[in-house]
Design a protein that fits this description.
Largest sheet: 2 strands, antiparallel
Strand content: under 5%
Radius of gyration: 23 Å
Distance between the termini: 6 Å
Shape: globular
Number of helices: 24
Structural class: mainly alpha
Length: 518
Amino acid sequence: MAGGAVVNTAGGKDYPGRLTLFVFFTCVVAATGGLIFGYDIGISGGVTSMNPFLKKFFPEVYKKKQMADSTNQYCKYDNQLLQTFTSSLYLAALVSSFFAATVTRVVGRKWSMFAGGFTFLVGAALNGAAQDLAMLIIGRILLGIGVGFANQSVPVYLSEMAPAHLRGMLNIGFQLMITIGILAAELINYGTNKIKAGYGWRISLALAAVPAAIITLGSLFLPDTPNSLIERGHPEEARRMLNRIRGSDVDVSEEYADLVVASEESKLVQHPWRNILDRKYRAQLTMAIMIPFFQQLTGINVIMFYAPVLFETLGFKGDASLMSAVITGLVNVFATLVSVFTVDRLGRRKLFLQGGMQMLVSQLVVGTLIAVKFGTSGVGDMPKGYAAAVVLFICIYVAGFAWSWGPLGWLVPSEIFPLEIRPAGQSINVSVNMLFTFVIAQAFLTMLCHLKFGLFYFFAGWVVIMTVFIALFLPETKGVPIEEMVLVWKGHWFWNRFIGDEDVHVGATNGKAANATA
């Protein structure tokens, strides 16, 4: 396949190590950092479709929603303040991810997770008790800071703790927790919407404290990674930790030696933010920018942020719109499990390419189904059978995303950076992700109002572009030790022109040989 790279493992460095119970549990606890991100994604759309919430904070939207069915269905939720409620979190996450990079590097991955969980906890309390829009937005900003720290540190932690041959599976635990958080939020919204006293939205927002408490307390019991311990000057502790996570009967000398070499090289880098712009890191920097950029332009957050609002716009009423969101949430969880068990067998590229084709077809079908019923006027009604077909194809779309761009959008950037620029690289990944999450969240309802059914065609067009990008420019990274990843880029038909022989580590040179395939 054009642009692919295959790593020849014959005679190469397959570090010994197995999935120990210790590694499994630490990775599960760390992955719960994804719960806070997922819970927020799921809770926002449900709360913004609840009448008591709209009546208190967004009365204009509430009045528009109560108008007769002759109203333009595409535009009834178009309100900048409502979009700011959702998107403010992601702007805060964008800014905080840069500070999180320093915390992650200087004091370790676990304390970055703790900071994220604690800040999210405070934000959840403010949101649940909100009396006015300002209090609501401040709470959202604190939630965003928490998300920025967690999303910066958790994927890196998982990639560093996992054995190379199981890195994909364990790292996708983060995305799995995001999907579980989304599903939990949608189920909670479905239940709290039935509270006739009108305070259900407060319970939905305040319960964000539960996943926040899990990662806050859990992080206190997590060990730090051998990579981080070496980086911070604790070599003996790092060796003991490496022995513990790979198995007490395993000789870790070779892997430890390569980690030390990588750490020594990283100490020569005084300015990681400047060095990441070096020619030899061009491939990694491109992926850290383009993968999260494309991930948001799949259109997934249109579904996940605004699922209840979107389904209500499509003609579903009240509880039906929330239940449809729950159905897509269930599909999201189970499809993510597919990637957990296939990513280290099939590889990253195959999942990316298959998922892209599946998303493309389903988006085109959904856009066409909506066009037939609502046209450009936005006035119309959707029979139950027809609505079921829309939900079916949205679920097919969600499944395609959940085993491709969803988990791999976090996995691939977290595993491709050498230690010396890893925190800076992950911060760029998170900040680009949050920037375009913010843009989509802020603009979606307005885009729906103006582009109408064409919005789905808009995202389908981007899916074509990103699928071609992956086919041409992303080499396969499964099973490759992180510190030897340079060989993958060196063996790629396009990226090898940016990497000189002197840029390849001595440890890596003695290991795997990478061969490009045309």
